[in-house]
Amino acid sequence: MTIVGPMSRPKTVLAVDLGATSGRVAAVDLTASEPTVEVVHRWANAPVVAADGSLRWDWAMLTGEVERGLGVALDRGPVASIGVDGWGVDYGLIDESGALVTAPYSYRDRRTDGWRSIVERVGAEKLYGITGIQLMGINTIFQLAAHLDADRPTLERANRALLLPDLLVNQLTGWIGAERSNASTTGLLDAQTGQWSPELLDDLGLPANLLPTPVSLAGSAVGRWRGVPVNLVGSHDTASAFLGMPGGGEPGTVFVSTGTWIIVGIELPEADTSNAVAKANFSNEAGAFGGVRLIKNVVGFWLLEQCRPGWGEPPVELLFAEASAVDNTPLFDARDERFVSPVDMEAEIRHAAGIGPDAERAVVVRSIVESMAAGVAGVVDELRSLGAAVPQRLAITGGGARSELLRQALERHCGLPVLVGSTEATALGNAMAQGVAIGHFAAPAEGRSWIANATVGSVYGD
Questions:
Q1: Residue 189 — very low, low, confident or very high, per pLDDT cuts 50/70/90?
Q2: What residues are labeled active site?
Q3: Contact, 189 vs 195, CB < 8 A?
Q4: DSSP helix/strand/coil, 161
């Protein structure tokens, strides 16, 4: 008989990362001296137009691809844990039996166009004072208000509203709950108590029990899938990406997570809901293991991805190579919400930047890159003026870490050196949190030291 002791247990964990344009299941060996992310399954993702004309997520497709990827990974060998992260603010409604009531809406649906009326009714100062969250039309609070106004019967059929990473964990394990870092994106979580705000739920007329309680922390065990433990991680992908960034926790490091959105910010020990920070419209989002991320959103590679279909889907590398030869490019404000869901992205950019119809696509691409970098620089300047940080360096992760053109633009616009992290920082942070959950790392600081050895890039499988 072989006795399997603690040292011989598997230390490979699976990070499920749901993205608004792609999803992946990645394997990470926690015992590797140089952390590497192996993507064992990847798939494209996009909202679909429902029969009523609304934008929804194809949840059956998403869960099917996740289970396919997990199955492929499990077939390759023992796994110690599974963790799930994804984008924030979107939710799914389940009934008392746990069945999905309706396909989840995408935050890009236009149903929240009237969100400012909710702000006026409840009060901007009150909203920010309780939650410390940047006021944006995509926030869950405005989505639920729109849902209640347009489709009250469907909402009343629901037993719980689960944020999408929590909804996936529910479908894998049966667990019903909410993880703190993602809950903090909703505009409904009290920044001081770390629990749902009964006052805001009452202001909106939402059932007090619609959101699951208690709000749980990363590192919590929540069930099993095919015998493998499932543990909570920083289920908001930005929370996981913060854990996976280089220079994590070092004073003066400004984090730049590049993807559909570019998230720019710093780590603080506690929320800052001062009038100055509220006026600057920063978000105080909860960290996976405590503290907060003081951040702001800049529209990111969504700008480019929405232009590519009209150009015949050329490779991003080709577009960047063309753009590198362009000089004196006009800029536009990449923080403007007009770019969240325009009918024609290229036309919107050309109009905003003053780029004529005869200008080649390379000019548009260079304008996108420079405008993203200028948007990041604007956030860095705000952090500096607020006294929230003395920026000393940028730490860039995500897909933009591959782009020399973007890195150079960031250095030029921000006037700071750029520390390049992994393109798969989110999966690394997800895996690190699992390492804490299963006791492989004694504390998050130990896991961050391990991540500091990570290489840029990934190994792809499937």
A1: very high
A2: 237
A3: yes
A4: strand
Q: Would you state the pLDDT for residue 421?
A: 86
Count of alpha carbons within 13 Å of 197, Cβ hemisphere only? 25
**Worst-scoring range by mean pLDDT, 89-98, 119-128, 148-157, 306-315?**
148-157
CB count, 10 Å around CB of 213?
Answer: 13
Query: What pLDDT is recorded for position 452?
Result: 79
Q: 107-134, pLDDT tens digit by residue?
A: 999 999 999 999 999 999 999 999 999 8
In a domain, 185, yes or no: yes
Model confidence, pTM: 0.86
Same-domain status, 283 and 327: yes
Q: Are 255 and 422 in contact (CB under 8 A)?
A: no
Closest CA to 68 of 430, 460, 462, 428: 462
**DSSP letter (8 states) at residue 217:** P
Helices (H), 27-133: 59-76, 115-122, 124-131
Q: Are residues 140 and 193 in the same domain?
A: yes
State whether 158 and 307 are in the same domain.
no
409 & 267 share domain: yes
292: CATH:
3.30.420.40
Angle CA(227)–CA(229)–CA(230) in degrees, nearest 5?
Answer: 125
Pair 208, 267 in one domain? no
Q: What is the pLDDT of residue 249?
A: 65
How many domains would you assign to the chain? Answer: 2
DSSP assignments along 142-157, one per residue: HHHHHHHHH-HHHHHH
